[in-house]
Write a structure and sequence with these properties.
The strands form two sheets. The protein has a four-stranded antiparallel beta sheet. The protein has a two-stranded antiparallel ribbon with strand order 3-4. By secondary structure, the chain is of the alpha+beta class. Helix 2 crosses helix 6. Helix content is 38%, strand content 15%. It has one domain: NADH Oxidase (3-Layer(aba) Sandwich), CATH 3.40.109.10.
Length: 230
């Protein structure tokens, strides 16, 4: 619930909807969710098998449950499923990506990408049945007044994390695509000045012969630190 606080206005609170779990159940859920997420992979080879509108709505409603700065929820998700618009997005993305691969990216970046086998060709932008274009909303216009949003990038990033987990949990695959710059998304989709492209997310089913790079993840001890005070 979003409550606008004016002078001498007290915030409204409601009881927390919380169900206490046994320690055994907590561990079971944590373990099963980790095991589910541990096999999530970024996919670049999609089937054109459609994903229903209802499914996409549930995925995005899950993203909308993420926390955000001052509860401003500064995100906009634009779903693109028609071939003509997907084609426009692909051509514009490939134009930027070609320049990046050939002129903008330093040698170290290109070397790091070698293990992924990527290049500037982005066929998946047409093949995937749905593109979710994520925008950060820097401010809202409320009654003609500008209302600033806070921690926009951080809030939208958290919402995208929720979305990726929901996509994987539903048995679908996705790819986080960030062509740079992404202004073409704002132009093609006719989004207003207060919205800025954040991420392009193809969603769907993997191709029957889909393959992924033979790469691994860091071990927990490489990124988890138990702090000990002096």
């Amino acid at each position: 619930m979003s409550v606008s606080l004016g002078e001498n206005t007290m915030p409204e609170f409601i009881p927390l909807p919380y169900t206490s779990l046994s320690e055994e159940e907590q561990f079971r859920r944590a373990r099963e969710f980790y095991e589910l997420c541990a096999v999530r992979r970024t996919v670049r080879e999609f089937s054109d098998r459609p994903v229903s509108r209802e499914m996409l709505m549930y995925l995005l409603k899950t993203a909308g449950t993420a926390p955000s700065g001052a509860n401003r929820q500064p995100w906009r998700f634009v779903i693109v499923t028609d071939w003509e618009t997907k084609r426009k997005i692909r051509l514009a993305a490939e134009k930027e990506e070609k320049e990046s691969y050939e002129e903008r990216m330093p040698d170290q970046w290109l070397k790091d990408l070698e293990a992924l086998g990527t290049d500037w060709h982005k066929e998946f932008l047409e093949i995937a049945p749905a593109l979710i274009v994520v925008f950060g909303v820097n401010y809202d216009l409320e009654g003609g007044t500008v209302h600033k949003n806070y921690y926009v990038k951080e809030s939208v990033g958290i919402a995208v994390g929720f979305l990726l987990a929901a996509i994987h949990q539903a048995g679908l695959v996705s790819l986080t695509h960030t062509p740079s710059p992404m202004n073409f998304l704002q132009e093609i989709l006719g989004r207003p000045e207060n919205e800025r492209p954040f991420l392009l997310l193809p969603v769907g089913y993997p191709a029957l012969d889909a393959r992924v790079p033979a790469i691994g993840r860091k071990k927990p001890e490489e990124f988890i630190l138990w702090y000990r005070s002096p």
